[in-house]
Design goal:
Blueprint: E1 12-16, H1 21-33, E2 38-41, H2 49-53, E3 63-66, E4 69-72, H3 74-82, H4 96-110, H5 114-120, H6 132-142, H7 148-153, H8 155-173, H9 189-202, H10 219-239, E5 243-244, H11 247-255, H12 271-276, E6 282-288, E7 297-304, E8 308-315, E9 318-328, E10 332-341
Parallel strand pairs: 1-2, 2-5, 4-9
Antiparallel strand pairs: 1-3, 3-4, 6-7, 6-10, 7-8, 8-9
Helix pairs in contact: 1-3, 1-9, 1-10, 4-9, 5-8, 9-10
């Protein structure tokens, strides 16, 4: 269970780069909740020495630290942030039906391939897409060859798939004239889960062909995007922007902080625990199963449940600094490192 403290909560640092569409999900959430945090800006390509200094091999952005707890994957990050600062109104759905919509929208965009189609719509004349380093880096990330030509070839199919996604919001979810996905009085987690690929593409000139996508064709979607951006901008103006800190300062802050969470336990009924004979203190390896899967983290098993796995690791150049790395179970794999058992760090 994440810390329920408010002003006494451990310091929060977001490792990201500004044009990451995934990182924006967390930036929006922090702004809309008014949660204070610091940001450690990272390069868009590997290597990322600041992340390596944490003793973390995971290569996806963003990464969030709260005290000495390190959180991977935006789905888990937003869930954990919901538990912080209870004095501030939370943004997550509370009723079963709304929670289901929130989860389905998350799965639709992330697991359903929407982001992959959005990626295919990036104009190849963008400055970053003119850099050969980009294609080499992202090929390693996705695990297959990527070139400017292959990106362009996927565009027609991506236009068709994105049109179906826009239709879903225009003619179904927003069709009754509601301002927000759940009919709330302001943006909620469901809006963040729903809007991020479309907001991203709408802000990139040339990504969405005007003959298919325009405010006149999709007035409800574009109005929703505009309302959302205004709400985030207003929240940033009210609550202030994040302080930027260096990787060295971020590591020092993290190393000197308390834990955000008390350690959990290993669920003896979990199917992977049973199959691998896992116990607390076993050395395990954790990695994402879709992208960035060659970047794996190994550490001492702290806890494992149906939703989360937690391991203890050490900072790269300071063995005295022990951190706990949290990853979701969905989209991640956990395996015992052969022939190794150790006590907790």
């Amino acid at each position: 269970m994440a810390s329920s403290t408010g002003e006494g909560a451990a310091p929060i640092v977001l490792y990201h780069y500004p044009y990451s569409p995934y990182a924006r999900r967390v930036v929006w959430y922090l702004a809309l909740r008014g949660i204070p945090y610091m940001e450690c800006i990272q390069p868009p390509f590997m290597p990322r020495p600041d992340v390596e200094a944490l003793g973390v091999n995971y290569r996806r952005i963003p990464i969030l630290t709260v005290g000495r707890d390190v959180y991977l994957d935006t789905r888990l990050i937003i869930q954990k942030l919901e538990a912080l600062y209870p004095e501030k109104p939370r943004l997550g759905a509370t009723s079963g039906g709304d929670q289901a919509i929130e989860q389905l929208l998350q799965s639709f965009n992330i697991d359903g391939g929407i982001f992959n189609h959005a990626f295919q719509l990036l104009p190849t004349d963008l400055p970053v897409l003119r850099d050969p380093v980009y294609y080499k880096d992202r090929a390693e990330f996705i695990g297959k060859s990527l070139t400017k030509e292959s990106l362009g070839k996927g565009r027609p199919e991506a236009v068709n798939e994105m049109k179906k996604a826009f239709d879903l919001f225009e003619h179904m979810l927003l069709a009754d004239g509601r301002d927000w996905v759940l009919g709330s009085d302001g943006p909620r987690v469901a809006d963040i889960e729903a809007i991020w690929p479309y907001h991203w593409l709408a802000g990139i000139p040339g990504a969405l062909p005007e003959e298919t996508f325009s405010p006149s064709t999709y007035p409800r979607v574009y109005s929703w995007i505009d309302r959302f951006q205004k709400a985030v901008s207003a929240a940033k103006k009210t609550n202030g922007r994040a302080e930027r800190i260096s990787g060295e300062a971020a590591l020092k802050l993290t190393a000197g902080s308390p834990w955000n969470e008390a350690p959990g336990s290993v669920d003896p009924q979990d199917s992977v625990v049973v199959a691998d004979g896992l116990r607390g203190g076993d050395l395990v390896t954790v990695w994402p199963t879709d992208t960035g899967s060659s970047h794996r983290d190994t550490g001492s098993l702290v806890s494992i449940s149906s939703t989360e796995v937690v391991i203890e690791t050490r900072a790269k150049d300071n063995a005295a600094t022990v951190l706990r790395v949290h990853a979701p179970r969905h989209g991640f794999r956990v395996r015992k490192t052969a022939g190794t058992t150790q006590t907790r760090l």
